[in-house]
Amino acid sequence: MVRTQIYLTEQERSGLLSLVELTGMKQSELIREAVDLFLSQFDETRRKAVFSEAAGMWKDRDDLPDFRVIRESLDRR
Known about the structure:
Elements (H helix, E strand, L loop, with lengths): L9 H14 L3 H28 L12 H8 L3
């Protein structure tokens, strides 16, 4: 782990201390958990954005085979 220092507002510090008392977890554990949650949400948001940008990117291409025909030829009958 890497040691780091952060500045919190009074409200953030008070809320964090309340969570420490409520959960019995250490302040550092709560902060790491919050950072992990934030990062996982960012990753999900980014992943959705990439998929949205990629959707339809081949729609105007005319050099590709008809995948529906290929798929139908591979279906078991």
